[in-house]
Sequence to fold (1432 residues):
Amino acid sequence: MIRFECDYGEGAHPRILERLASTNDEQTPGYGEDVFCARAAALIKGACAAEGADVHFLVGGTQTNLTVIGAALKPHQGVITAASGHIEEHETGAIEAVGHKVLALESPDGKITGSQVDRLCRAHHGDPNHEHRVQPGMVYISHPSENGTVYTKQELVALREACDNWGIPLYMDGARMGYGLAAAKSRAASGQSAGEELALPDIAALCDAFYIGGTKVGALCGEALVIASEGLKKDFRYHIKQRGAMLAKGRMLGIQFEVLFEDGLYMEISEHAVKMADLLRNAFALKGYEFRYDSPTNQVFPILPEDAIHALAEKYAFFEWEGAGEKSGKRWATVRLCTSWATREEHIRQLTDDIAKL
Amino acid sequence: MIRFECDYGEGAHPRILERLASTNDEQTPGYGEDVFCARAAALIKGACAAEGADVHFLVGGTQTNLTVIGAALKPHQGVITAASGHIEEHETGAIEAVGHKVLALESPDGKITGSQVDRLCRAHHGDPNHEHRVQPGMVYISHPSENGTVYTKQELVALREACDNWGIPLYMDGARMGYGLAAAKSRAASGQSAGEELALPDIAALCDAFYIGGTKVGALCGEALVIASEGLKKDFRYHIKQRGAMLAKGRMLGIQFEVLFEDGLYMEISEHAVKMADLLRNAFALKGYEFRYDSPTNQVFPILPEDAIHALAEKYAFFEWEGAGEKSGKRWATVRLCTSWATREEHIRQLTDDIAKL
Amino acid sequence: MIRFECDYGEGAHPRILERLASTNDEQTPGYGEDVFCARAAALIKGACAAEGADVHFLVGGTQTNLTVIGAALKPHQGVITAASGHIEEHETGAIEAVGHKVLALESPDGKITGSQVDRLCRAHHGDPNHEHRVQPGMVYISHPSENGTVYTKQELVALREACDNWGIPLYMDGARMGYGLAAAKSRAASGQSAGEELALPDIAALCDAFYIGGTKVGALCGEALVIASEGLKKDFRYHIKQRGAMLAKGRMLGIQFEVLFEDGLYMEISEHAVKMADLLRNAFALKGYEFRYDSPTNQVFPILPEDAIHALAEKYAFFEWEGAGEKSGKRWATVRLCTSWATREEHIRQLTDDIAKL
Amino acid sequence: MIRFECDYGEGAHPRILERLASTNDEQTPGYGEDVFCARAAALIKGACAAEGADVHFLVGGTQTNLTVIGAALKPHQGVITAASGHIEEHETGAIEAVGHKVLALESPDGKITGSQVDRLCRAHHGDPNHEHRVQPGMVYISHPSENGTVYTKQELVALREACDNWGIPLYMDGARMGYGLAAAKSRAASGQSAGEELALPDIAALCDAFYIGGTKVGALCGEALVIASEGLKKDFRYHIKQRGAMLAKGRMLGIQFEVLFEDGLYMEISEHAVKMADLLRNAFALKGYEFRYDSPTNQVFPILPEDAIHALAEKYAFFEWEGAGEKSGKRWATVRLCTSWATREEHIRQLTDDIAKL
Fold:
């Protein structure tokens, strides 16, 4: 069985394991105050062109989300998200457990728009009974989204403006950030672009905080949280500690991000995953299959008939996303296949061959 | 500078790093449902003689404490601890942040007694205004304690009985569990014992839940939580997820605990650390210094005059714990030195030589 | 201006004020442990035919909801409600502030069904990733609902069965309970009934907990919470105190509910309000207007053209509920008019005359 | 049995009941936006010489404390209090339930000092591991304290300065505020004063927020919260609603405070209670008994031998506070007697006669 179910099925990029080994005997202070974390933070600030930012390393995505959102909101505030957002659907009420309502907006593709945010805030503050409702206090987006889609620069600017209009921070969950950046680069290189692709400096300039995912992009675990806004920076390490997110051996996270960012490894492996996903997308498209979402990233969402799904499922593991009705006397469904930094091209070739034979 | 400040200054035991590397390409399901976690859990249940227990792997100590305590208590309940307990002093209010008061008991040595628990509960339930106070709902102890001291079997039985009397669970924080087990084994071997040393099966039989620390005992990170009582087992993975404690690559924790428990490595490295600490204790004792706490574990708390402290501080890093008054015209202070699985005997020899020269 | 905006615009029923005055000098213990609370609780248990129940008096509805739901749920659980439920829409995130997600179900009329609950629970527990989602842990309904509609016995039995199937409690918010009971009695008396109307003993037999609203039914403030299930009874006074819901002068609530329940006053004033609302409904129906919701209680929701709304708004205050589109070249809207225990028949006669003239 | 157990044993001052009756039929908007609340707020701002303040009416003390403290603190912060503070001892963990640790300072008399606050904050921020501890984020004091003692102007200025030094707000719980103000006025009138007594304008000038207690000073229920600092004012009504503290019939609180403050009734009844307490204090002092606390307010804490306690307990109800050891072959104890706005002078005369006969 060759697995395309998720992007966290293997361990870590070998260079990370090597560096963990080669630095193993060095004695460092604990709790993220070591030289590896310092160097990794500097590399990330450089990559973001955000020298004034603060960078913290946390262990996982849910943890990062609940720590940031819990620190940013006041008790009467909630966080705006797409209805399919990770914090709404996949975190067992972690945000509510730190006291806050999740304000979900309809979203056909995993993204939300500045005008949706604006409308929600306007409706709230225009309601004479607004004190009886949760005040919108932050915007949470994922880039790429749960559906593999990405924001353009224009879309992110519109969200920023909506946030500025209402005085609330904009936070980006970048669990799969690398794959979003790589898709942008690939689209730009292909000439499809109109200068609208988001790179890290754009994101750092437009968001109050965001995290660069390590767990799904080559690390054993770890997310690099970048905080640009002064209000959120203050006392942030207290919040990390309080939520159980401060590792005694914080070095373990610093080392990994140093490796990922010192020689462009993060982009290199992300581009590999997107290239592999593009091969899959081409193979499905050549057979005339359509896609549920316009994902240019490492997630591929073809809509397939049941016989094709069964045929592929004999050799490949993937995720059945949702039903897609009946057509030509067959049941159809959307499936999700993920590539990653660890995907082997030979496996992709095998699969594309099998797709061609469908 | 040779560092004895803490027991988390280095990376991980080399065998852990090797295993992470050798298993790196294996594809596994996420979220702790992989074969490594399953094997590690089986090994730990074996070591605890607790086949019916549930074992979960979490990332760090504060996280494990807040997840367990948050899951066990009802909103009106608090958790009993020594005033020096980690949850009271060193977790930035993590327990309060999940809604619960910490009920601190006086403790000269980091331990609390069954009769203290009994008195507190009796006073609470005997108070006609008890509904205006937080109800004691759980007992939290550390073994070894923050002061390096350990519970005897008799002491733990007394705590168990007090808990049973009042119908509340007993939870043990074993961040440094290995060093406590090793100290017990060493004391037993030396003939000092009266059969009162705690081994893992005793702990599993007497506690409702406890965790076996990895972070401070050879792992990169990770704590193995053992839940013996049925009430706490139910739905526990929801709590892990909600608190941000469920790793996508849960295998990373399973692999580490498999290595630590498959060939006795956990005890072997713990015994090494205690042996190293014993060398330090002997060296200080030979010079006539006294100790602040009766710690038989990897933490050593000699009370030293300021000149001795300054002399040692030139070559060695350690932690100044608290002042100890004036004596013979000098300021004295308690210092803490930690050994660990990573302590090199040559460094200990250097230090004991230097102690001898004080 | 004659006001029909809400059912809490006046003070309290005069008999309540008289009793507060006549008992004023009696000295009683505090915190709800007085003789008035005891007598009121006994009367309510009698009215519910629920001698084994516990009755507590709290001050307001949001407070009662957050106290009950916070006490009943475990951290990983959420509460099921209609999307229009008070806890979802009108309590400023009070439930999230005590840590729990609100799981909203679509509802055209303010009610939810047993099969909706069943489907939601089945979907949750059937999801292999259920641990990543909030577990349904309680059902919250309002009777009457926010739309003035009421549950039949059959509907409540179906909800009870769904709750039993999934082992979760059923909780009813009865902020306007009296008006629901009165509507049932009126319908039964009119021969429209098929024995399906809910009376207090039915509710007590079918719900784990519910509250009988005082604030909107003749009291200055106060809600009588009835707890039927053993699990919820335990330690409940701690929860009341912790949430700031325990009055030092608890007698103030006991006195009011004693007056309301000793001679049938609660039903008498509720029936008055429903009779007044029926007069309004008849007046609107005679003119051919339709109603947004099939409310038999004290809330009336006619759909009116803008000119009628403007005409009535000159003399009467009421609430514009929502737009209802264009028809016959006019903008139409649903408005809400509330009667209450305090509504004067002469005001209703004036209004029905004015409706007739529209 | 004549009761001196507490100051909330009766109903409300008759003028309050009269006003509730005379205003009963007036129709007003709900949720504290009525004319009575507006007038009461204006009266209170006048009495405080604090035109810029915001005034809100809440139902009870625990509720007010949890709402204010929950609104003011960030998640990693705790609130400083005397160890005997109401929030530490008598609110069932209400503050922890909204997420915050209570940082208790030793206090022999129920008060804390500016230098204690300063030392705690200095120690916290000077600790290199401060991020592992709860950050002091607010100071909570009671005036009068749980022991009936009062702050002088100098003492409150010192607390204000400490708070300013560390940038944290100062909050005063005035559940028995009237009795503190009356004691100050009485002391000033007696010539004992050095201009050090606190009046409402001093308190409003020195505190960021405080509440003027109604429940224990003549009202059925209700506390008037005065917020002076801009930071706390913002969005405060959301917090009131979220915590279940916003009454639909908010008028009920406004009416009561309007009566208490329109003609000096609040001070008048407070002065009566203090005068009655002074009679008791004199009677005990004449017999040579000492007092546990130097309370000039409505609470009296004589230390009595057991035979005296038993003799008095035959006719009078009071509270046995704590043991006071053995002396002259007898067990002694501190008892607490409370007077209030409702205390009848004839009862006091009876009791002082009986004290004289001891």
